[in-house]
Amino acid sequence: MATNEVIRACSSRSEDVWFEDGTVVLQVENTLFxxxxxxxxxxxxxxxxxxxxxxxxxxxxxxxxxxxxxxADDAEDVRDFLLAIHEIGIPNAIAGNAVRLSAVLQLxxxxxxxxxxxxxxxxxxxxxxxxxxxxxxxxxxLRAGESLSVECLxxxxxxxxxxxxxxxxxxxxxxxFVLLQLIRTSDGDNDVIFGGVIHNNxxxxxxxxxxxxxxxxxxTLTRLARDIVYPSVFGHSCPEEGFFxxxxxxxxxxxxxxxxxxxxxxxRQANIFAHFCGSCKNRIKADMFSGRAAVWSELxxxxxxxxxxxxxxxxx
Length: 316
Ligand SMILES: [Zn+2]
What we know:
Oligomer: single chain
InterPro entries: BTB/POZ_dom, SKP1/BTB/POZ_sf
Largest sheet: 5 strands, mixed
Bound molecules: zinc ion
Pfam families: BTB (PF00651)
Domain BTB: 22-86
Shape: elongated
Protein name: BTB domain-containing protein
Organism: Phlebiopsis gigantea (strain 11061_1 CR5-6) (White-rot fungus)
């Protein structure tokens, strides 16, 4: 009976995704997951098709169940993905952790688990705005110190890189904002962009095509900031007498530029125009208002992506 049973000295059963009466064993790296083929088939056309493929007579077994190897995946990612399929909804520990959630996002897209994919997108979309008004609303929340559902997303590099990688194939409408946040959070450190970051003993590395997007985006956004958000800070002279707007401009510019020459067109700076005359202030404000709207609509293009309209799912 057990002629094809494989003794796997180097493989171990998953602690929490091993059901004694499961009907199929999935092997990912050195971890074995015993799950239910009927349940996977119900939620995933990919697995449904996989389980109908005829097995060769010498197919490997494990504990009397067919053994299927998923070769290109990470065992911890698959564990979270399977947990989310077998639990009712995405467990809080995963939903509140952007690195783990991004694995569920990526694998639910890869294995065509539509409901789970939708749930992951629903958690991430409110914190990865696709319109300028939702961006401002999020910005206001952050400034007010409100906590977010996936708090770490906005301020840690591993989270941003993991979400960017997953979003590039599984939810591209999240990408423009995540890449913008990545430019901000990496603070000009190119090692982070090209070399990756260590998270839980693993190196999380931005996909090569996203590295290119990010570098191009950084220079395009700087140009847009200069040309359409802050043109009156760069170019105009003050019409009022008795004010020092023209010398203040240089001081303000040095505050706006980051050390590496990046100029953020969408970051709001409190009160740096307070000492300008009313006429200059109005002009600067009007430029920023119209300029930011224009930058937001160009944001995907700055990263070499399709337009917002093409990126955003139809139900928006
Ligand atoms: Zn002035």
